[in-house]
Fold this sequence. Notes:
The structure holds two protein chains of two kinds.
Chain A: H1 2-8, E1 14-18, E2 22-26, H2 32-41, E3 45-53, E4 57-66, E5 71-80, E6 85-87, H3 97-107, E7 110-112
Parallel strand pairs in A: 2-5, 6-7
Antiparallel strand pairs in A: 1-2, 3-4, 4-5
Chain B: E1 3-8, E2 20-26, E3 29-36, H1 44-48, H2 53-61, H3 70-83, H4 89-117, H5 121-142, E4 151-152, E5 155-156, H6 165-173, H7 176-188, H8 190-196, H9 204-210, H10 214-218, H11 226-229, H12 250-272, E6 290-298, E7 301-309, E8 315-321, H13 323-327, H14 331-334, H15 340-349, H16 354-358, H17 374-391
Antiparallel strand pairs in B: 1-2, 2-3, 4-5, 6-7, 7-8
Helix pairs in contact in B: 2-3, 4-5, 4-12, 4-15, 6-12, 7-12
Amino acid sequence: MDELRNALGDLAEGWEERHGRRLYCAVSRERLVEAALRLLGRGLRFATASATDMRSAMEILYHFSIDREGAVLSLRVTLPKEDLVADSLAPHLAAAEWIEREMAEMLGITFRGLTDTRRLLLADDWPAGSHPLRRDGEVPG
Amino acid sequence: MTERIIPIGPYHPLQEEPEFFRLHVEGERVLRLDIQLGYNHRGIEKLAESKSYDQIIFLVERICGICSTSHPFASVNAVENLIGVAIPERARAIRSAIGELERIHSHLLWLGLAGHFLGYNTVFMWAWKARETVLDIFESISGNRQNYAMFKVGGVRRDIRDDLAPGYLAALDRLRPTLDLFRKAVEDDPVIHARTKGVGVLTADDIRAFGAVGPTARASGVDVDVRRDDPYAAYDRVEWKVCLGSNGDIHDKIVVRLLEMDESLRIIRQCLGPLPPGEIDARVKGVPPGEGIGRHEAPRGEVFHYVRSDGTNRPARYKVRAPSFMNVATNVKAVVGGTISDAAIILAAVDPCYCCTERAVAVEHGTGRRLWGGDDLVRLSRDRTRRLREEMGRP
């Protein structure tokens, strides 16, 4: 764990530790891909990402499993609501592609560098510009 | 030769669930695969935001129609991680026993389907017959063959009776000869070898790139299993081992699942013989603000749930990541270079679950379309049977 803290070093903007080997590390969106690549380089496994509409801002967690220690380290990125753009991890890691496509359609986040921007789960006739997991607007029924 | 596209899906006799594979082929060779999802999206994560934590367990139990306890297992792990609660020993043992019974019936279901895709319908019949033993045990424990409703935050909802446990273990022992028979068939049968060895190979690097999990990863020699790596329930209290393959082909995926069923039997025997005495519920009151991550090694691999609480009785965010979400994507690698005839078994080899991948029922789409109830479905079924009889000239 200490090794990972050192590895992220200057990229980390804050650490939180929760029950049962769960670590959360805040990083800026500009440094997210760099932080993720450092974790992957140390053998961590990308589990998934989860985006949450916090009403005032959008938060994305990139969850990495530290299998040899039975822990999960999540990188936390906060995006301002008026500028929902983040760099894509997919060009570096195939595992990130589907979940970034899902976050894009469900929450309206744009991933810079994501080449396949087709919808993953939503129907073709779902209205454009409507994102079901957003909490700041009406979702059509 | 020109490149052609063979569409499989979204509705196709090969598939139990809707998904759309476009096989780009040149002659018999598969050049490329394009996967299109979303035909099964039900909006479970959105729905979870309007449910209480107790209701969510019932909701997520309905994500998967095969391994129905996988999502409740990860769900209670996530909420208990958020709260920081320890659960009683007896509840731990019951949880692991339920998880392993499910692994056996899920692997047997897959084994049957794999046999079917290879043209071995005897394997299909035998595997599904053996699976009934496990479903009977589930019915005795919970009243249900599927959707057992055993889990709750803080413990389990229902006890396993001490006087019935020896009967369950005896029934499981009677499964062993059948499992041995399958293992010998996979070891010895030249046709199974010809159809599965060196077919649909995934290297350890492929597994890491796609983040694949479960038997799909372990068949390629990637040693991950959250039951051992991040222990929960009773998994660090019993003796068992993680089963690995090395070649990453279909054959090793079959072998890994067969070996895992033996380990599941070992775990169940230690959990149930006898169950630790005591309470089955830690009686949790309320969920504080915070966030939690819960994992469970489901039959298809790691299920990952993330829950965010704002202190009310409903989550602010509920994220579900099923193993198939990671595993299905590996098909774009596994089918390339193979022949069209191998595509069916390769696409089935990760034991894909699209219900889980898409968590996704909009039964009523748009307006004006009616909802089908149980009575309607029974009527439809009877009408069709009558029509078939008439067409065949039978009264």
